[in-house]
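Box 3.1 A note on notation
Throughout this textbook, protein chains are presented in two layers. The first layer is the amino acid sequence; the second is a token string describing backbone geometry. Keep the layers aligned when reading.
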Amino acid sequence: SFNQKCLFACLVVFVNLSDAYKKNQKIDDKNIPHTLYGHSIDKNIDFPNFCRTLDGFLLISEKSSNILKKFNLGDTKFYPVSFFDLDLNEPINDKTYYFLNIVESRNYLKPEFCTKDLEVEPFTENLYGLHYSEYKNNAIAVSEQAKGSDLDLWYDPELIYSIFMSDELKKALDDADIQDDWFLYTCKIINK
């Protein structure tokens, strides 16, 4: 039937979007979500300035987006999204958040100098992971080239779910007093 075909097409688009996103690939503008859906969400909810959805998508607040606009992001983009409550059949609030698509990568990770808790991800080669509870200052080591990066925001393809930023961007988040929402940790700089 038409409804089954439509549902199947929507699922295929979502799976393709999710797969591309998790690989830090640039998402085609026509596939960017404009609305995120939830159930029984408090109208007064104030989402953090940076968060990750259960599907792994990154969302940022308008305050965060205004800061990022001032920095060199390369091809990394963010797109406005709104939240809709399926139970009430209405928008959750009138605030704008942004879907963050980080596509710029740099290979600065120095796994041999990272915390002993860094592990090779199962069924991969050269892909490392660190349980969120193991993150702390200097747990991750990067080459000194990171300090001179041409970008202010990037991921490292060797570290799953990684996000790195320049000292200047980190200072801007500090100055706006939103750094805690970003869960930032300093990296150990290795000059070998």
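The mean pLDDT is 84. The longest strand covers residues 77-85.
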